[in-house]
Design goal:
It is built from 13 helices and two strands, in the order αααβααααααααβαα. The chain is mainly alpha-helical. It has a two-stranded antiparallel ribbon. About 2% of the residues have low confidence.
């Protein structure tokens, strides 16, 4: 009899919790689902502030640009644009331009004078014009070389010279770019006011374009002191020079970027202004370098005698007759009048 009581007690202790659990589940099912526990993460606002997602800006005792921003969400986007867009496409553009220049020279060769050199020279460029040209050229070469090292140096030069040597070279290139860059708009300013009067549209310029500068047709392509192609080069130099100078000044002088952030609410961070300026600066600089490649080719190899005029200030009279006949006639008329 005692054994039966023990079994009944054990069975009761086993079934009773199951009945209670079943009864509780039934009541809960009738009352509806249990609402979730409303216990917000105490660190949520902290991480929103870290990522810059709060309406009210975060504050910090650290002073400096974007010191209260710990995570720049556009940083990865800027890095991807630089490494996957600017580097490969910029390099491809420069290579294509060089290939086109080489192909044109191989097929056409240099433009020679039909009458040959006369042995007589005529003044073409003043001392002021030559100074401005070479002042601009020297600054541009320094900025172009240092900029190309900073842009393409890691993938191209590290395998050749190693990381240590490239680090020294990149450090020097950065300093050259930063300290020489502010002089570039000065050179652009001098170029504009020294040569703008001779680079305006003249009667006959459209005909020069129609003849391809003498490449099409048998008649001579008439031109003034600067032909229309040189005028396009002049205005592109002014336009590209202004854009690359403005973006370069933003990168060189942080106060400008701070002013932009304070003036234009579209820019929420100082570094966003710097990233956009860097992208525009790089695109314009690569286009500028490609343009100068063409200028050097035309002046040095394609049309012999052009470089001489910018070095000595004088050109052969037959060269002036065949390439800039209207200007030559003007100069000869002025010389007769002076006589």
């Amino acid at each position: 009899m005692r054994i039966s009581k023990h079994w009944i007690l054990a069975l009761t202790m086993t079934i009773l919790p199951l009945l209670v659990a079943f009864n509780s589940g039934t009541v809960a099912a009738q009352e509806g689902p249990i609402s979730a526990i409303n216990n917000p993460n105490p660190g949520a606002e902290l991480w929103q502030a870290v990522r810059g997602r709060l309406d009210t800006p975060a504050t910090t005792q650290v002073k400096g640009h974007d010191s209260a921003v710990l995570v720049n969400q556009q940083g990865d986007q800027w890095t991807a644009v630089r490494n996957k867009e600017l580097l490969p496409k910029g390099g491809d553009l420069l290579i294509v331009v060089l290939l086109i220049i080489g192909a044109v020279y191989a097929m056409r060769g240099p433009v020679t004078l039909h009458a040959g050199a006369s042995g007589k020279e005529i003044d073409r460029h003043s001392v002021n014009a030559r100074f401005v040209h070479w002042f601009l050229a020297g600054i541009f070469i320094a900025l172009a070389l240092s900029g190309l090292i900073l842009l393409f140096g890691r993938p191209l030069l590290i395998p050749l010279f190693g990381k240590a040597a490239f680090g020294t070279l990149a450090y020097g290139a950065k300093n050259v770019h930063n300290f020489v860059g502010p002089l570039f708009p000065v050179a652009i300013f001098l170029l504009f006011f020294n040569m703008v009067s001779k680079n305006l549209y003249e009667k006959g310029d459209l005909k020069w374009f129609a003849q391809g500068g003498g490449m099409f047709g048998k008649s001579h392509a008439s031109a003034g002191k600067f032909n229309p192609g040189e005028k396009i080069l002049f205005w592109l130099t002014i336009f590209l020079g202004i854009v690359v100078s403005v973006t370069g000044y933003v990168l060189d002088f942080p106060a400008i970027a701070s002013w932009i952030v304070a003036t234009f609410p579209e820019f929420t961070q100082y570094r966003h202004v710097m990233e956009l300026s860097h992208v525009i600066h790089t695109i314009i600089a690569v286009l500028f370098i490609a343009l100068v490649f063409g200028h050097i080719f035309l002046a040095v190899f394609f049309v012999p005698g052009t470089l001489q005029g910018m070095v000595t200030g004088k050109v052969d009279e037959n060269w002036a007759k065949e390439h800039h006949d209207r200007w030559y006639a003007e100069m000869k008329g002025s010389a007769k009048g002076d006589a």
